[in-house]
## 1
Amino acid sequence: MQLPRDPSNVSHALVAAFPTRLARDVQSVLAVMPEARLAPMMPFEVEVQGETVAIPSRIYNEEPGADLERPLAGGTQQVILHCLYSRHSDGRVRQRHLEQIVASGEPWVVPFVVQLAGEYVLEILEAIGRGLPELAVPGSAQRRLYGEFIARNPAFFARTERRVVSYWSGYYRWKYGAFGTYPGCVLLETFRAAVVEQVGAQWPRHTPRPAGGRG
């Protein structure tokens, strides 16, 4: 399902993907993005530090050229641009922009990364794993960041788990006979360890249990 193709609706939909304090920065980013041929796909809602944001499932804007990006002020606007294009309809575009944000410590970047963990492009799953090396380290900043987000969004994480299983079964079971060896499962287990550390208790599981695993 897509939003009506009205410029004001499209702008509102993309501004709503970020905390309200970033609205002006988002508008600056939208000003350099080429007009889309199609409206954004219907968004999914998550909570980021007590505020609900609505992130589009897909956008269809072409990437801006370097000359258009140049006016963007500072790192925040660049990160917003990369977040939006991590929702692009082209998987190669999603991966290219994900790689620019995956290591970010901003809480509002986290849902863009976790959503991609539940998608089907294997190279994107591998890029997330490379970009979050500290996620498996107890007490690390990355572990706290992702653990807090998942604790606030249990239904979203459960949906992500089910999607990972579905894509493994439909696309990659021939390559990874055991779910536990699939990169998407490896990511889910590190996310799970992060939220278990955050809440100090076991977390509901919606995936096959990895061989020899607990929890």
## 2
Amino acid sequence: MSTLDIVGLCGSLRSGSINRAALNLAGSLMPDSVRMEVVEWREVPPFDADLLAHGLPAPVQALRDRIRRADALLIATPEYNFSIPGVFKNVIDWVSRGEDQPFANKPVAILSATPGPLGGARVQYDLRRVMLFVNAMVLVKPEIFIGGAGGKFDAEGNCTDETTRKFVGDQMKSFEKWIGSVKRMA
């Protein structure tokens, strides 16, 4: 079996983001046949149709190309004001432009971590709707909502909660199977 190439995207730009820690945790718990590269998107500009009229900006094109090459996409995102962080939604809006957008038929898994008790349930609801619209193939279960996340990761971003480690590890095993299922459907 060849190694599966996963692009990891964090919905937060903050280097100390709990969602970046959750994304890194997921990467460390992936099966041996899966490798993840966390791709940065800080240079993607605000969406502007006037910019688009002149072609895709280089950082957008690079991100689109990297997502297109990947076997799948793993997203870890915080919840801002009950929804998707604006800057992250901006990235999705840019990447999804054009008939050749790379989300179509791409296996996607989502997880979220928040200090509150719901663990990002509302952001996942909205993000799943957006991913559905761009024809991504989102893993339905297991869902991962890491509530009270501040008490589950240490200052260095390491997960200290065994239950969280198990849930995330289980999702990564299911994600590997989901990627295979989606590939067989293509």
